[in-house]
């Protein structure tokens, strides 16, 4: 759900993420650019950006209003989790890859600010919560 509850976002095996009206189910926007399954997605706290995570080894930052791809964040393996920071500005993104790496990124520049190597190699047990 978006922070205001008006929109929901889904990721799909068709390599897209979609933004929907939460009350009517009307499709608002399709985000295209990933080359494999989209596993996770999140809305920024400010409601202007979204992030998606994919098996194509990337997370992408998008403009929520027009679907423009703004940044591509590259991992060394499939990315199965993503979330914005809970601060009001939402200027940091966290991603989790199958390679057991958790990365914290600057949403302005795409710079990886911190990489954490998680000892548990089962990525399906790691969940990202904002």
Q: How large a portion of the residues is in β-strands, by DSSP E?
A: over 45%
Total strands: 11
Largest sheet: 4 strands, antiparallel
- By secondary-structure content and strand pairing, the structural class works out as mainly beta
Question: Which runs of at least 5 residues are low in confidence (pLDDT < 50)?
Answer: 123-130
Shape: globular
N-to-C span: 12 Å
What does the radius of gyration come to? Answer: 14 Å
User: What is the average of the pLDDT values?
Assistant: 89
Strand order of the largest sheet: 4-5-6-7
Multimeric organization: single chain
Proportion of residues in helical segments: under 10%
Counting DSSP H or I runs of 4 or more residues, the number of helices is 0
Listing every helix as H and every strand as E from the N terminus to the C terminus, the arrangement reads: EEEEEEEEEEE
Question: Describe it for me?
Answer:
By secondary structure, the chain is mostly beta strands. The protein is 0% helix and 50% strand. The chain contains no helices and eleven strands. A four-stranded antiparallel β-sheet has the order 4-5-6-7, with no helix packed on it. A hairpin with a 3-residue loop joins strand 5 (49-54) and strand 6. It is globular. The two termini are 12 Å apart. 35% of the residues are buried.
């Amino acid at each position: 759900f978006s922070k205001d509850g008006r929109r929901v976002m889904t990721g799909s095996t068709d390599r897209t993420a979609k933004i929907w009206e939460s009350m009517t189910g009307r499709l608002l926007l399709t985000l295209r650019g990933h080359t494999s399954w989209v596993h996770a997605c999140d809305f920024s706290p400010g409601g202007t950006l979204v992030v998606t995570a994919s098996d194509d080894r990337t997370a992408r930052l998008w403009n929520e209003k027009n679907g423009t791809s703004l940044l591509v964040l590259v991992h060394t393996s499939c990315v199965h989790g993503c979330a914005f920071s809970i601060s009001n500005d939402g200027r940091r993104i966290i991603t989790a890859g199958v390679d057991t790496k958790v990365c914290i990124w600057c949403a302005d520049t795409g710079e990886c600010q911190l990489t954490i190597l998680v000892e548990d190699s089962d990525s399906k047990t790691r969940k990202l919560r904002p």
